[in-house]
Each structure stands twice: as C-alpha cells, then as structure tokens.
Design a protein that fits this description.
Shape: flat
Strand content: over 45%
CATH architecture of the largest domain: Beta Barrel
CATH class of the largest domain: Mainly Beta
Order of helices and strands: EEEHEEEEEEEE
Distance between the termini: 88 Å
Strand order of the largest sheet: 5-4-11-10-9-8-7-6
Largest sheet: 8 strands, antiparallel
Structural class: mainly beta
Length: about 170
C-alpha cells in the first residue's frame, strides 16, 4: 500500500519534499530521497573514529587535617564600599571561635544592626602549607595558619574584614 503525500493548496498540487508513506505492519515509515539518507549517514559516521579508553578523574586529594582544632578569633572591618560605606552596617561581633575539622571550616559574620538578612557564611579549605581559601555566595575568605596563630581576610558583598586568633 503506497501513497504519496500531496497537499492541495490554492496554488495547486505541491510535492511535500517527495516524502512517501509506506504501510509496514500497520506502522508508517517515511522514506526520504536517497541523497538525504546518504548525506545523513555520512555526517554521522564519516568523521567518527574509534572510541578511546575512557579514564575516570583522579580521586580528590585527602583533606589536610594537621591544622584541625579550635581557634579563638577577633574580627575588625578594614573597609567598606557601596551602601555600607560610612554606615554601621559592617559592624559585627564576628565568630569568636573557629573550629577546623577535616581541613575545613566556616566563618559566620552576623550583622546585628541589619534585620531580616541572614548572616553571610564563608567556607574555607586548608592547604598543606597552612593557607586556606574559599569562595561562596557570601564572598571570599583567605588566610594562613602559622604555628598556633590564624590570620585571614573576608571580602564580603560590601565589607572587607581582617580576623586573627590563637589555637586553644
């Protein structure tokens, strides 16, 4: 059973890109021009080579735990910009105790003068040389631990802070 798709329009009979419909076991299959089929086969298989060996990514490095512990810290704003400039918006008690566990820590900077806004949280990861670094939606945290002393900087949305402290 073979029929050619043609549509009757006011301008006359139009060949619908010479697509023929063939009934095959109750299912319709479309057969395109032989040139179109050849072009499709060449485009899919012409440039493909053999698939090489798929290698998985190397495992992540183990966390640096030699700096794990509790540090008592103090924070102070060093500069501000934008709407926070010349206001008390950057005033914060900071986070008096920082606990590093599995080479990672968080530092929360609450703003008691601002209501209805969550406190920004900075997340840092330790490196083997004692440096730490992290970026998040709150901003950037970076610094260094040397011996028992921690020192760092927080670059937030409108405030920059410096913090330091000692291991307890």
């Amino acid at each position: 059973m073979r029929a050619t798709n043609r549509r009757r329009t006011p301008q006359g009979n139009h060949d619908m890109s010479r697509v023929e419909t063939i009934a095959v076991d109750g299912v319709f299959a479309r057969r395109f021009r032989p040139c179109a089929v050849a072009l499709m086969l060449l485009s899919f298989g012409g440039c493909a080579g053999p698939i090489g060996t798929i290698r998985s990514a190397p495992p992540p490095p183990a966390p640096v735990t030699s700096f794990d512990g509790t540090y008592r810290t103090a924070i102070r704003p060093t500069s501000s910009f934008g709407l926070a400039q010349n206001t008390e918006w950057c005033d914060t008690p900071g986070q008096p105790v920082v606990t590093i566990a599995n080479g990672r820590f968080t530092y929360m900077v609450p703003h008691p003068e601002i209501t209805g806004s969550p406190a920004p949280i900075f997340v840092a990861n330790m490196a083997a040389d004692g440096s730490f670094y992290g970026e998040s939606g709150a901003g950037l945290i970076a610094g260094q631990i040397q011996g028992m002393h921690i020192q760092g900087q927080l670059n937030g949305a409108a405030c920059i802070y410096s913090f330091s402290g000692q291991r307890t």
